[in-house]
Amino acid sequence: MQKTIQQRTLKTRAKLLQAAADVVQKNGYQALRVEEVVQAAGVAKGTFFAHFHDKDALMEILIGEKLDACLDQAQAAEPPKTVPKIIEALAPVHEFMMSERYVFDLLIRYSGAAAISEIGPIAYCFEKYFRIVMMWLDQAEVRQDVPTDLLAEGVQAFAIQAMSLKFCALHSATTFTDRLETYLRAWLSPAA
Amino acid sequence: MQKTIQQRTLKTRAKLLQAAADVVQKNGYQALRVEEVVQAAGVAKGTFFAHFHDKDALMEILIGEKLDACLDQAQAAEPPKTVPKIIEALAPVHEFMMSERYVFDLLIRYSGAAAISEIGPIAYCFEKYFRIVMMWLDQAEVRQDVPTDLLAEGVQAFAIQAMSLKFCALHSATTFTDRLETYLRAWLSPAA
DNA sequence: ATTTAATATTGACCGTGGTCAATTTTTGAT
DNA sequence: ATCAAAAATTGACCACGGTCAATATTAAAT
């Protein structure tokens, strides 16, 4: 079983990705139409699905790339040691995650790898988020009666909860940041 | 502005809901096709959309009803006072929420009311979940340094996190119950 | 009983994601 | 250079959710 990847394959894929990025740039993720992408890329519709399993797979790549960049940005800063600083450091990440309802839903849907053999770009980002927070917590003034990895998982859970509520009219009295701060203070503060 | 609802409206709606429930019974939620429902109900496709804004709206009703019943079941039992008992009491609820990937995704998507004026069945259930847990926690041996409503929100957040990971091949080593127990012990235990 | 206005139903039609047999292009062997 | 097998591309076609102008039915007024 041999598998030669032709040059044009890479070219076509690049064209599709570029075209898709352009389309997103114009109207956001939610409004992206496969038809529009293939037209902009100058290929047939079937070609799209020869390169990406479905529309979601393309979205995973586009959104994953962006999210990965946000995570890099967060990681580049000085490791935060307090709850407000942690929230501040994660701000670009959370901001992007909440930028569109569509984006948030897709992120949640693909946050876990469906199969071990194939970790998608978004599941990878969630792992990265986890690792970054864990590293921070290792050197922050937080409760020590619980393992750091568990604390980091909790931060992720609370961040998602706070983001969920952000899209919820019922709880719009409190801002995302304030809510997350309340959560994390209760979760991370050292036992009195 | 008067609005007379005709008798047949109620009848047609009931027929559609019954037909939909039957279809779900046979093949689950994920596989439900609007076409199949209207055929089983003996009405035209347009009629369906005169009664429900879209397919999701029907799903919200069907899934919301079922979830509400599960919550009633949980509430009927003796108020649990320990973490394992709480998890046990919530078991039927979580079981249903995880019964299908499709169900879980839809629940998350509609967990927050999009508009204050119109709280959907699922958002209502999430509120109910929150209220039940809060009542339990008021009389349980849990940490007292944090308001009960915040504790209850946390339980919800951790439950969702644990369910998410249940669908994730990467974290399938631990069972849902074990994971949730770990989370809740760390979150609810009184400060040492 | 008729009329009329409000309400409900219909089904042909559309938009969009996704499929696949047929065709074209590339690669490697001779 | 020629040819055969593998790989990539094409676009007509399908599935399914959703729309809407036309039609049918109901309820209330006379």
Provide structural commentary.
The structure is a homodimer of 192-residue chains. Chain A has two domains: 1-52, Arc Repressor Mutant, subunit A (Orthogonal Bundle), CATH 1.10.10; 54-188, Tetracycline Repressor, domain 2, CATH 1.10.357. The longest helix of chain A is centred in the middle third of the chain and has 22 residues, at 55-76. Chain A is mostly helical. Chain A is built from nine helices and no strands. Chain A binds chain B through residues 105, 108-109, 111-116, 119, 123, 127, 145-146, 150, 153-154, 156-158, 160-161, 164-165, 167-171, 182-183, 186-187, 191-192, and chain B through 105, 108-109, 111-116, 119, 123, 127, 145-146, 150-151, 153-154, 156-158, 160-161, 164-165, 167-171, 182-183, 186-187, 191-192. Chain A binds a DNA duplex (30 and 30 nucleotides) through α1 and α3.
